[in-house]
Specification:
This protein has 207 residues and is of the alpha+beta class. Helix content is 24%, strand content 29%. The chain has a 9-stranded mixed beta sheet, with no helix packed on it. Helix 1 packs across helix 3 and helix 2 packs across helix 3. It is elongated.
Length: 207
């Protein structure tokens, strides 16, 4: 949901105009300032920026545009040389459990930063392919140990081996770590052998 070049120009014009005048420009003034011949094009940019939460509109006023916090947050990060980033903590097995290894890289997913403690892992293996999670994909994980049956979790087994599976609490008290691959068997562990490190929020695939 990054800004296009023209959308960034609209935002910079809005910010400069409001800073100078104390109120927002009209659509005609935006069109004039950007050299646009059509007000419909201005409407299109405004709608897109509102959908991306860079601006707000007050539908009861003529000069109704307000700059959203997202714009100020990103401008502050840009000017300070920093950016919103999620740490890439290591590689996670989606087959036989393996150790998750620390990694200093970062992935940028600012739209997910409302979840405190979010981190990223890169998947290795094919055990979650029926949930459309493939080897090489990145999963965004919310750090939590409060999960429900059916959640896709990062599970640490015996304190050293991490794996990505669906979580199920069995009637006999064991935990079933269920792969999403009909060719593979589930993993059964006692609760004391297991530490849930997080719940998967999203999957990203790089082509």
């Amino acid at each position: 949901m990054a800004l296009t070049r023209r959308q960034k120009e609209v935002m910079d014009l809005l910010h400069g105009f409001i800073e100078k005048n104390g109120y927002s420009p009209s659509y005609e003034e935006i069109a004039s300032g950007l050299g646009l011949a059509s007000l419909a094009t201005v409407h299109k940019h405004v709608q897109a920026l509102e959908a991306k939460q860079y601006i707000r509109r007050n539908y009861n006023h003529s000069r109704s545009l307000e700059i959203g916090e997202r714009y100020f947050r990103e401008e502050k990060a840009r000017n300070s040389g920093t950016s919103d980033a999620i740490p890439l903590m290591g590689r996670i097995a989606a087959g036989v459990p393996v150790e998750a290894i620390q990694n200093p890289e970062s992935l940028h997913f600012s739209d997910f930063l409302s979840h405190e403690g979010t981190f990223a892992l890169q998947v290795r293996g094919e055990s979650m392919i029926e949930d459309h999670i493939c080897s090489g994909d990145f999963v965004l994980v919310e750090k939590t140990d409060a999960v429900r049956n059916g959640d896709i979790v990062v599970a640490l087994v015996d304190g050293t081996e991490a794996t990505l599976k669906r979580f199920y609490l069995e009637p006999d008290g064991r935990v079933r770590l269920q792969p999403a691959n009909s060719a593979m068997e589930p993993i059964y562990v006692a609760p004391e052998q297991l530490q849930v490190q997080g719940r998967v929020l999203a999957v990203m695939r790089k082509y």
